[in-house]
Amino acid sequence: MLSEKSRPLIVATLPLVGSRLGAITPNFYRRLFAAHPELLNGLFSRANQSNGEQQKALAGSIAGFATALVAHPELLPEQMLSRIAHKHTSLGITEDQYQVVYRHLFDAIAEELADVITAEIAEAWSEVYWLMANALIKIEKGLYAFQANDKIWMPWTVVEKNQAGTDSITFVLEPADDTAVTIARPGQFVSVRVALPDGLLQCRQYSLSADVESISRRIFTTKRDDGGEVSPVLHRDVKVGDAVELSNPYGDVTLDGAGPVVFATAGIGCTPSASALRALVTAGEDREVLVLHAEKNLEAWALRDQMTADIESIDGARLQLWLEEPTAGFHTGFMSLEGLDLPTDASMYVCGPLPFMKAMRNQAIEAGIPSTKIHYEVFGPDLWLAGTN
Ligand SMILES: NC(=O)C1=CN([C@@H]2O[C@H](COP(=O)(O)OP(=O)(O)OC[C@H]3O[C@@H](n4cnc5c(N)ncnc54)[C@H](O)[C@@H]3O)[C@@H](O)[C@H]2O)C=CC1
User: Which catalysed reactions does the entry list for this protein (predicted)?
Assistant: First the structure.
């Protein structure tokens, strides 16, 4: 809980700190990587450092956390913390790293706010930082303890590499050693760590796309991002028989409970809903499921065969498709919920490009689905949660 002493100081300085975060976060990362260059090898994304997205996400989450604390000093923003904790654990973040981040972040704040900062203001912001850090440390300990092993990275052997639609590939992997495997939940992701051509280790999170309950294989599907660093290596360089490092499964946007479900997905964002559909089929669970999917054209849909077969075998499952390229029998253009018969008691899962998710969430709320029942998965730095709109 934020102390009564700190609260007015945070309220008074939040606009100023918020307006200077654009300078504070790059200053922080400069300091952090100067002192710990090893963090760039296998932890932080080089691409998101150079395009500035990591800085924006950090700035947004500090501001978002402080804003939430000021509004409700007795509550911690659980959903926000849970999302960050799942991402952190998939990268192997440890408790001691919070102290390292604290030192460099507060040195950066002291430098960038030198004209206004006082010892009292610094102390109030320290309190905010440690409220957030300690809450994350606690959640992350619980997530690590839940795993079947205490490893961060495990070697898995690629046993199949299958083209999936025009731009994606489905990788099927088997354990390369005898580390105990955690059973995943539908909707979860793993971090995948590969060496780039220049030797730097880099990780990305990919949703499991099928058979999440298996302990003998992992399946994920990834779209090639030509401007990216990791998916081109996976698509071009990783061959059947190669070992790839995977984390344990994480992610809190999972298909739980019973009742009607709406999946609204676009592009490669279909992967978590594909694993959820497969889980329903495996469990022999029939329930009302509305699958809404959007693509450029039919050929681009990475998991078309798997998802259409699974939808057909679930009693109560229906599919509606939007294609940007006009195609007979399907909606044309971007997805729209207008005029659809949405079950208003449904849980809704949204995944795809950020503008798509924002549009779907707004439209679903208009259509009467409560915001608490709308779940979304963001890949990459969490710019939406960060409140940058
Ligand atoms: N790599 C992965 O395994 C996963 C990636 N993602 C995320 O999905 C996103 C990219 O997916 P892509 O397949 O490349 O998407 P894309 O750019 O090919 O777009 C897919 C579809 O999204 C819809 N769309 C695009 N912009 C829209 C807008 N402004 N409003 C409404 N609808 C819009 C369109 O129907 C489009 O055909 C990335 O942000 C990625 O982070 C999500 C899940 C898994």
Answer: 2 nitric oxide + NADPH + 2 O2 = 2 nitrate + NADP(+) + H(+); 2 nitric oxide + NADH + 2 O2 = 2 nitrate + NAD(+) + H(+)
